[in-house]
Amino acid sequence: MKQRIITGVVAAALFLPIVFYGGLPFVLLTYLLATIGLYELLRMKGLSIFSPYGFLSLLFLWVILFPAQYNEIMADFYYSKTELGIAFILLLLTYTVITKNSFTFEDAAFTVLSAIYTGIGFYYFMETREAGLVYIFYSLFIIWATDSGAYFIGKAMGKKKLWPEISPNKTVEGSIGGIICAAVVAILFGVFGEMNAGIVTLIGMTIVLSVFGQIGDLVQSAYKRHFNVKDSGTILPGHGGILDRFDSLLFVLPLLHFFHLW
């Protein structure tokens, strides 16, 4: 616990000033976090980012991440993200032939999905910051409220297992408790946060986001269980890897954008 607290304090001291400042430093931080996330995913499957296919997947990720506010730079190349993505996929499939199938179709599919999974989530991290700090903190606080509520209420009242094959400690009662705690946070943001939505609408959206935040957590648990690893990485002592900390956000942030809250 002491190690978790120390890591959390140090990470917050480094992370929050950049989040507040925004701009290019925040974009570079997001690129770094997403790159580490992709590295963690590939490593779990025994694939190396320091390889030709790893380099291609990294370029694919960086293209997905390219911020909307710099679209005029992308336009100068006369290619869209979709076209570049197709090119990377074809190159990865070509690499399966070059390696005589030592790098398989399954490996190529995993690399593509890993880049898309991390890329989309962290892309909307930047888009949310561009919309305003309040939306970043709204996302963070509803996830923290969901996690804390699920833990403490589940520990006190939990009886029915939520999904024992994936995460044996999570309970239905804890999950519901987490949603209720997130709804309380939504009310506070609706009253004090100058959100671009009424309180009733905000509560409804928060319930959906809380549910999908928990699904993001379960997705992380599912692939860690599949690859038989405890944590996605070791970069954050006491917390695990970057994906261990951002699993819920990777689901919540795209959905927050789809709600057109700003």
From TrEMBL:
Similarity comment: Belongs to the CDS family.
Keyword hit for Membrane: yes
Pathway per the UniProt entry: Lipid metabolism; Phospholipid metabolism; CDP-diacylglycerol biosynthesis; CDP-diacylglycerol from sn-glycerol 3-phosphate: step 3/3
Name recorded for this polypeptide: Phosphatidate cytidylyltransferase
Alphabetical UniProt keywords: Cell membrane, Lipid biosynthesis, Lipid metabolism, Membrane, Nucleotidyltransferase, Phospholipid biosynthesis, Phospholipid metabolism, Transferase, Transmembrane, Transmembrane helix
MF GO annotations: phosphatidate cytidylyltransferase activity
GO cellular component, one term: plasma membrane
Lineage: Bacteria, Bacillati, Bacillota, Bacilli, Bacillales
EC number per UniProt: 2.7.7.41
Transmembrane domains' residue ranges: 6-34, 46-65, 77-96, 108-126, 132-153, 174-193, 199-219
A Pfam family of this chain: CTP_transf_1
Enzyme class: transferase
Subcellular location(s) of the protein: Cell membrane
